[in-house]
Amino acid sequence: MLQVRSKSTSPASPEEGNSTAPVPAIADPVQPPNSSGLPTVSQSLFISETFSSRQGEGKLTGQESFFIRTSGCNLRCWFCDTPYASWQPTGQRQSIESLVQDAQAVFADKPASHRHVVLTGGEPLLGAAIEPLCHLFHQAGFHVTLETAGTIQRELPCDLLSLSPKLASSAPDAKQHPRWHQLHEQRRMPLNTMRYLIETAKDHQLKFVVSDRSQFDEIQSLVEQLEVHPSNVFIMPQGVSIDDLDAALPWLQPWTEQVGYHYCDRMQIRWYGNRRGT
Ligand code: SF4
């Protein structure tokens, strides 16, 4: 595991969040390179945390990566395991150049082929500066994984789109959170946006967190509608402990294998427990 580095946090607004640091002026993202070799840009994103760890889910499980978690989300899943980036978004503004520089510092003594960055959230597609950030990472030679619920269309280079559509059972309680229940239902499943993101990414995977057999039909229907090959589908058990993961194995793994999907433990929970920065 690489060294873990986390940024400080502070309160923010419900969606993308408030700025707590001076926000650089927004400039044209396409400018001549400066002395660092990167184009001159001055855009920022609201960042919950950055850290170095191993990817715990999907095709690149085990890959050492630099994770950038944006703060803020346009959905409100009741089971969200990063509420500090959705229900109560906290963080700070950080320029996209400094995010690339932080990632470069982590991999300074590694071969270029080891440069992996994971853009996650919250919802990383919420802030427009995610587009120039992806371009900067590509220009710096990084493999870019984008972890998203797929509800916002963006033009960006992405090596692995890790798409986690939110199923009907993800909605927050209608009585406790009436406004967010309505918004969540309106926003969670824009199929054409998801198709576009899949088509424009170099590679893709679909990830579903499953808590109940009743979700099987919905998952299979969605995989067919998005025309995703079963070998690109990863099924994970819902849970925050090793006991939860173990309890799901007997009923979830057989179905997953029967329909040709991959069963995917959430290895970060087995490796590090359910804690931030992993
Ligand atoms: S989309 Fe992801 S970050 Fe947003 S509320 Fe749902 S689980 Fe949390």
UniProtKB/TrEMBL annotation:
Free-text cofactor note: Binds 1 S-adenosyl-L-methionine per subunit. Binds 1 [4Fe-4S] cluster. The cluster is coordinated with 3 cysteines and an exchangeable S-adenosyl-L-methionine.
Pfam families: Radical_SAM (PF04055)
Polar residues: compositionally biased ranges: 1-21
Region described as Disordered: spans on this chain: 1-39
Cofactor (UniProt): S-adenosyl-L-methionine; [4Fe-4S] cluster; Mg(2+)
Residue ranges that the Swiss-Prot or TrEMBL entry lists as coiled coil: none
Residues engaged in binding Mg(2+): 82
Segments forming domain Radical SAM core: 60-278
Binding residues annotated for S-adenosyl-L-methionine, in chain numbering: 79-81, 122, 164-166
Subunit architecture: Homodimer.
Family to which the UniProt record says this protein belongs: Belongs to the radical SAM superfamily. 7-carboxy-7-deazaguanine synthase family.
Record protein name field: 7-carboxy-7-deazaguanine synthase
Species whose genome carries this gene: Stieleria bergensis
